[in-house]
Amino acid sequence: xxxxxxxxxxxxxxxxxxxxxxxxxxxxxxxxxxxxxxxxxxxxxxxxxxxxxxxxxxxxxxxxxxxxxxxxxxxxxxxxxxxxxxxxxxxxxxxxxxxxxxxxxxxxxxxxxxxxxxxxxxxxxxxxxxxxx
Length: 133
Hints:
The chain has 133 residues and is an alpha+beta fold. The chain has one domain (2-131): Heat Shock Protein 90 (2-Layer Sandwich). Helix content is 36%, strand content 19%. The chain has helices spanning 9-28, 33-42, 45-54, 105-112, and strands at 64-69, 73-79, 116-120, 125-131. It has a four-stranded antiparallel β-sheet with strand order 1-2-4-3, with helices on one face. α1 (9-28) runs antiparallel to α4 (105-112).
């Protein structure tokens, strides 16, 4: 629904999906990069996520999305309850992770969906902007 407010809804939907999935996987479910790699390699990723969601001990954990339409831009501010992470290695496409099965979503969102994308504080908040024509 948020992407429908954007000049290019398909591009915005991709970027928002990547940011929101990251917030759920890492912020709420606390699945780290290495653990996700293991789960994807074993084929157990989806089953593990479903199991964690059903057994989640913190039902009040939510991802908050704030949307603001300004005269010249759209602003998305996503906050998750997790401990955060260092987003710097994921802001660019990395040759070291070329063969990894994941780890490109933030860079994809940054380069294809948003005009600006910035992590705030400890990495559990991200602010994305789309400039309006």
